[in-house]
Each structure stands twice: as structure tokens, then as C-alpha cells.
Amino acid sequence: MKSIIDIDEIKSTILNQARDTISKEMFDIECPHCNRAVSVPAGKSNCPFCNEEIDLTLDFEF
Ligand SMILES: [Zn+2]
């Protein structure tokens, strides 16, 4: 009997969901340019106050 559970597919589904969750999450940080409290997503975005680019890189420690 052939197994109906595809481990690789499950793994990639979980990874995709995790990536989705992380990319939609907003992070409360201090703008490195104007030092105001801002909420930005991971990656590149612009500060709503000074309009400077904020490049938020997430360092995950596993
Ligand atoms: Zn700023």
C-alpha cells in the first residue's frame, strides 16, 4: 500500500506558511534615521515620519 503522506510536501507547506506569517508581521522598532517608534514589516520599507528607507533584516537564531 502506498503511503498517502508526502513528507516533503508537508515540510514545504509548513515553510511557506511560516514565510507568509513572517512577511506579514509588523515589527515595532526605532527608526535608525529619526529615532521615532515605527511599525514596519521585515525587509525594506520607508519610515512614515522621515521617509528614509528602513532595511529591516531579521536575524533568527536557531
Ligand atoms: Zn524615521
Give the secondary structure arrangement, pairings included.
Blueprint: H1 7-24, E1 26-30, E2 37-41, E3 43-46, E4 53-56
Antiparallel strand pairs: 1-2, 3-4
Bound molecules: zinc ion (ZN).
The site of zinc ion has 8 residues, from loops.
Keywords:
single chain, 62 residues, alpha+beta, two-stranded antiparallel sheet, 1 helix, 29% strand, rod-shaped, binds zinc ion
In short:
It contains one helix and four strands. By secondary structure, the chain is of the alpha+beta class.
Low-confidence stretches: none
Percentage beta strand: 25-35%
| Measured distance between first and last alpha carbons | 37 Å
User: What are the secondary-structure elements, in order, as H or E?
Assistant: HEEEE
Strand order in the sheet with the most strands: 1-2
The number of distinct helices, counting runs of at least 4 residues, comes to 1
Summarize the biggest pleated sheet.
Answer: 2 strands, antiparallel
Helix/strand structural class? alpha+beta
As a whole number of angstroms, the C-alpha radius of gyration is 18 Å
Which ligands are bound?
Answer: zinc ion
Q: What share of the residues lie within helices?
A: 25-40%
Mean pLDDT: 88
Query: Outline, from the CA principal axes?
Result: rod-shaped
What's the number of extended β-strand segments?
Answer: 4
